[in-house]
């Protein structure tokens, strides 16, 4: 496997004090996972509203830039919480994640979604109005990427 070079890192992550603490008790992992899922719900709500506005399907009375300004703090904070809690969850089962195809798919989609969001979406949402084609393309790609992360995250437990 070409990714075998990462196995020592995954083993180290699995042995961190935080990873061991999350595995040690009965409430730590579920509490972190609950916070992760609540932040995910907030992120998804923001992404869906923004992407549907880009696509011209929702909140047409709002400018794209205006809606983006309103949603940005919620989107950024929920994303920060997701990244912190997701890292914690990863540390608690890093070696198990190493051999999980859904985990790698999620990581790939997360990288692409973050890259797309902080480059393309940010550039497009600076404008008050967006062309129909651009809005449909950017909103559609964004939705596919973010929902792929969620589906892959859910699949991790079953793969």
Class of secondary structure makeup:
mainly alpha
Termini separation (Å)?
Answer: 18 Å
Rounded to an integer in angstroms, the radius of gyration calculated over CA atoms is 18 Å
Number of strands: 0
- Helix share, percent: over 70%
Mean pLDDT, rounded to whole units? 94
Taking the sheet with the most strands, its summary is: none
Described by its quaternary structure, the protein is: single chain
> What is the H-and-E element order?
HHHHHHH
Strand content: under 5%
Number of domains: 1
**Number of separate helices:** 7
Outline: elongated
Low-confidence stretches: none
Explain this structure to me?
This protein is mainly α and 159 residues long. It has one domain. The protein contains seven helices and no strands. The protein has helices at 7-14, 17-24, 28-54, 64-92, 94-98, 101-124, 132-155. It starts with 6 loop residues before the first helix and ends with a helix.
């Amino acid at each position: 496997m070409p990714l075998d070079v990462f196995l020592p890192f995954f083993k180290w992550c699995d042995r961190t004090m935080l990873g061991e603490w999350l595995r040690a008790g009965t409430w730590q992992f579920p509490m972190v996972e609950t916070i992760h899922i609540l932040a995910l719900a907030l992120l998804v709500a923001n992404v869906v509203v923004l992407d549907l506005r880009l696509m011209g399907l929702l909140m047409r009375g709002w400018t794209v830039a205006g809606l983006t300004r309103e949603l940005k703090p919620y989107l950024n904070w929920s994303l920060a919480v997701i990244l912190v809690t997701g890292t914690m969850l990863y540390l608690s089962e890093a070696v198990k994640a190493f051999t999980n195809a859904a985990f790698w798919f999620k990581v790939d989609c997360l990288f692409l979604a973050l890259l797309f969001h902080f480059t393309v979406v940010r550039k497009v949402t600076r404008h008050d109005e967006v062309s129909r084609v651009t809005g449909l393309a950017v909103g559609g790609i964004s939705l596919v990427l973010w929902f792929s992360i969620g589906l892959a995250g859910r699949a991790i437990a079953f793969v």
